[in-house]
Amino acid sequence: MTTATLSRWDRFRESFLWYSFKRDKVAIASFVVLVLMVLAAIFAPLLAPTNPYDLAQINIMNSELPPVGMQGADPAFPLGTDAQGRDMLSTILYGTRVSLLIGFGAVVLQAALGILFGLLAGYLGGRVDSILMRIADVQLSFSTLMVAIIVGAVFKASFGNLMFGEIAIYMLIFIIGVAEWPQIARTVRASVLAEKKKEYVDAAKVMGFRTNRIMFRHILPNTLSPIFVIATVQIANAIISEAALSFLGLGMPETQPSLGSLIKSGFDYIQSGSWWITLIPGLVLVVLVLVINLLGDWLRDVMNPRLYKG
Amino acid sequence: MLAFLVQRISQAALVMFVISVIAFAIQDGLGDPLQEMVGMSVSQEEREALREELGLNDPMVVQYLRFAGKAIQGDLGKSYFYGKPTLTVIAEHLPATLELVIGASLIIMFLSVPIGVYAAIRPQEWLAKFFMGVSTVGISIPVFLTAIVLIQIYSIGVTVEWFPEDTGWGQWLNGALSTEGGMPSYGRGEDLTYLFGTWNSGFFTERGLMHLVLPCISLASIMLPLFIRLIRAEMMEVLQSDYIRYARAKGLSAARINFLHALKNTMLPVITVGGVQIGIMVAYTILTETVFQWPGVGLMFLEAITRSDIPLIVAYLMVVGLIFVVTNTLVDLIYGLVNPTVKLTGKKA
């Protein structure tokens, strides 16, 4: 896929995207932090001093040790331990992994649904459009969090605690993906409506291509940049939604914690003074969501210079 | 106008119908009412007879119609846990949630408009940039985390011992940075004033207000950044329009232009978004109420889930659905009234 003169890499280096990235300190810093966190999450099994899923490595005698720098800390546990004696550093690394996995998974699912429904609504128009967009409107007016909480509650009630715990990751990806598809569908629909009027679509129609081919091969590639922008922000939203669901006990079980369920398990002990079990995972969560949001803001400014909205 | 009204209301009725179908499906799909009513010892024949009597063998449509008919008359079944009609249980818990939402909305209104307008008028000043930075960070903090941090700081208290105690300034800094645990963080307190019906208000006593402070700030914290960003963006767009330039050319004072001409048109879209967001706040009350053990409908709903109190879950869905539908319809109607440029019929999102 290289052109005669420029390779893909060269083209990227010539692009406006790279140009503005180099000049934006906030974007560079956010990107670096995000990459570090993603790498730490991917290589959690190598980096973590202990495996929090392995009950044999946990000693209840070590429970509620404070982080290094406070009185009574054990240097073996740099960020302290939780109420079950698990090393906080290890659980946070593994928890970030679960949170990121659910965030990415949910956005992939909602992008798939959103692109499909957005393309159908925008290109076919008419009745398909009004039905799909009505559903999207109603779902959005109910707030995606509410929809996710209700679906989660129903799943939990029908599967039972144990079963729900085992399949929680897939459930959460499904719940958040389904709850948030209207966001992407609306964006896709708006750009499809703009693209549809252009000449290349007429040309494709005249050449007798099938509707599917025009939708997916011709129009879709031209609507990708707004999808990219909104998907970035949606990852941050999905991670927050997951944390909220887990905090309510409708998400990841404590044996396989995400950042949200770590915060929840720590909240029971905050009155006894063990603030680190809650606040350190909380800080990690905020930093993770913040850098993704900052990158999303930057991307939106670059890809859509007309919008100065911030 | 009449056509618009009819269209909006019939749409709301359609949405309520869909919600009731979903609620009915949940009630039907989860749990068997027979099991809740009779023990293990009842024979198969008796069960069948009871089934027939309760109408559980009727076709789905008939069962749904019975469910909907009762719902319209205000009968959504009895809560397993409370042993009272579900709507009564909800009516007892609703005032607490509404006070939370009212308190948070007041905070949002009084802070977001001045900050948003200021950030739009003077976008280059450091204070405006500071506000925008804080609101980006604010969006990234989940509401339950804000609540937990507030409890840690203002209820449990933080003792700071970073500076040397033996010097005067060190002692002073430690004292200034430490917070005394003074704010109540659990429940609504005892000092409630009886208003009417099931409404006991915390707005009229000092203790009651103290109990409201932390939960309301937490609930407001999630929406405040959104509103600041929205008001700033809308205001900046309005400030670039021709009529503002014309007003400037006429030599009107900046204050008059900003607050009379520009603010009016800024607030139009803010009303729509704002109305919808206040509905959305109901979802966040579940999180806030869980952290503060606030005895409202959100906490009640979550407890109903843990107790598998299905009638109560269903009733909550119907009531919250109704709240959402009513607020959205009202917001649409108000927007249609205040903004004459909206085409009243066939308005598309």
UniProtKB/TrEMBL annotation, chain A:
<keyword id="KW-1133">Transmembrane helix</keyword>
<comment type="similarity">
    <text>Belongs to the binding-protein-dependent transport system permease family.</text>
</comment>
<dbReference type="InterPro" id="IPR035906">
    <property type="entry name" value="MetI-like_sf"/>
</dbReference>
<feature type="transmembrane region" description="Helical">
    <location>
        <begin position="275"/>
        <end position="296"/>
    </location>
</feature>
<dbReference type="InterPro" id="IPR050366">
    <property type="entry name" value="BP-dependent_transpt_permease"/>
</dbReference>
<feature type="transmembrane region" description="Helical">
    <location>
        <begin position="161"/>
        <end position="179"/>
    </location>
</feature>
<feature type="transmembrane region" description="Helical">
    <location>
        <begin position="135"/>
        <end position="155"/>
    </location>
</feature>
<feature type="domain" description="ABC transmembrane type-1">
    <location>
        <begin position="96"/>
        <end position="296"/>
    </location>
</feature>
<keyword id="KW-0813">Transport</keyword>
<dbReference type="Pfam" id="PF12911">
    <property type="entry name" value="OppC_N"/>
</dbReference>
<dbReference type="InterPro" id="IPR025966">
    <property type="entry name" value="OppC_N"/>
</dbReference>
<feature type="transmembrane region" description="Helical">
    <location>
        <begin position="26"/>
        <end position="48"/>
    </location>
</feature>
<protein>
    <submittedName>
        <fullName>ABC transporter permease</fullName>
    </submittedName>
</protein>
<feature type="transmembrane region" description="Helical">
    <location>
        <begin position="98"/>
        <end position="123"/>
    </location>
</feature>
<keyword id="KW-0472">Membrane</keyword>
<keyword id="KW-0812">Transmembrane</keyword>
<keyword id="KW-1003">Cell membrane</keyword>
<dbReference type="Pfam" id="PF00528">
    <property type="entry name" value="BPD_transp_1"/>
</dbReference>
<feature type="transmembrane region" description="Helical">
    <location>
        <begin position="219"/>
        <end position="240"/>
    </location>
</feature>
<dbReference type="InterPro" id="IPR000515">
    <property type="entry name" value="MetI-like"/>
</dbReference>
Automatic annotation (TrEMBL), chain B:
<keyword id="KW-1003">Cell membrane</keyword>
<feature type="transmembrane region" description="Helical">
    <location>
        <begin position="209"/>
        <end position="231"/>
    </location>
</feature>
<feature type="transmembrane region" description="Helical">
    <location>
        <begin position="130"/>
        <end position="154"/>
    </location>
</feature>
<keyword id="KW-0813">Transport</keyword>
<dbReference type="InterPro" id="IPR045621">
    <property type="entry name" value="BPD_transp_1_N"/>
</dbReference>
<feature type="transmembrane region" description="Helical">
    <location>
        <begin position="12"/>
        <end position="30"/>
    </location>
</feature>
<comment type="similarity">
    <text>Belongs to the binding-protein-dependent transport system permease family.</text>
</comment>
<keyword id="KW-1133">Transmembrane helix</keyword>
<feature type="domain" description="ABC transmembrane type-1">
    <location>
        <begin position="94"/>
        <end position="335"/>
    </location>
</feature>
<feature type="transmembrane region" description="Helical">
    <location>
        <begin position="100"/>
        <end position="121"/>
    </location>
</feature>
<dbReference type="Pfam" id="PF19300">
    <property type="entry name" value="BPD_transp_1_N"/>
</dbReference>
<feature type="transmembrane region" description="Helical">
    <location>
        <begin position="266"/>
        <end position="287"/>
    </location>
</feature>
<dbReference type="Pfam" id="PF00528">
    <property type="entry name" value="BPD_transp_1"/>
</dbReference>
<protein>
    <submittedName>
        <fullName>ABC transporter permease</fullName>
    </submittedName>
</protein>
<dbReference type="InterPro" id="IPR035906">
    <property type="entry name" value="MetI-like_sf"/>
</dbReference>
<keyword id="KW-0472">Membrane</keyword>
<feature type="transmembrane region" description="Helical">
    <location>
        <begin position="313"/>
        <end position="338"/>
    </location>
</feature>
<dbReference type="InterPro" id="IPR000515">
    <property type="entry name" value="MetI-like"/>
</dbReference>
<keyword id="KW-0812">Transmembrane</keyword>
